[in-house]
Give the backbone structure.
Amino acid sequence: MPHHHGHVAGSTAPSGRRRLARRCRDITEARWFALAVFALILTNAVLLGMETYSGVLEQWHRWLRLAEHTCLAAFTVEIVLRMAAHADRPRDFGKDPWNLFDLAVVLCAFLPVVRENTTVLRLLRLARVLRTARFLPQLRTVLVAVARSLPGTLSFLLVGALLLYVYAMVGWVFFGHHDPEHYGSLGRAVLTLFLLMMLDGIGDAVHAGLEISRWSLLYYASYVLLASFVLVNVLIGVVLTSLDEARDLGEEEEEAPTAHDPAARRPDQQDLRRRIDAARRALDDLERDLAARTVLPGGEEGEHRRTAQGAEPRS
């Protein structure tokens, strides 16, 4: 009989996890839950902004601390509910990058080193504001576009750094003695050219260069053409292309709704889920019935099988 009880408990445990996951999923996928979390994130941002005013901080220090602890407790409950919603499939929780981000932000707040460091704690609270992208599809599309543009952006930075280095060395050679304030060293030249890339002070730089040599016009014209027009437009093109790809990806996800979006589920998917749940319950009942049969003596079990098949029992 102990074997029977252990087998029944093992067969009902997955069913219990499924019920827990279903209940928590109904909560986390509800619209009111998303609105509540979004309001909580905005409240956290407002509290963080209020702490920048010394007068408010001194007068309402105790209440602000209480509000921060309340927000932390609410975020902890939220992430626990999200984890419980994946109790029947824990691996799916880690497949969503936002789940991992939320978990990291909450867990770091409980680390002793973080809690004792005010600067790190405030940066961590600032990271919670980024969670608004989880509830704003357009903002999430922009963040996905920025992430997809990183490989092209790195290539742009490499080419831009090489261009800055070459022109900075040329500027140091030709203008270093005449204009040490802007080209007296490699670092000063790079800083000057970086500002010129944004066309900041280009007129003054050209006039100062013409006083040194007429060839400086060719130097500045070629640099502005390559750095300000070509490279910047290439960067804009990379970001816009990634934005289009991210928008297309978001449209594909909307057309193919997943189980995490209850509003996008079709009736046939809900009916299929109910049938799967019914089949699982039937399998659990069959397992318990088989477990009960295994504890019967061999003779009685064999007698029962032969009687069920219509055979005469042996004397």
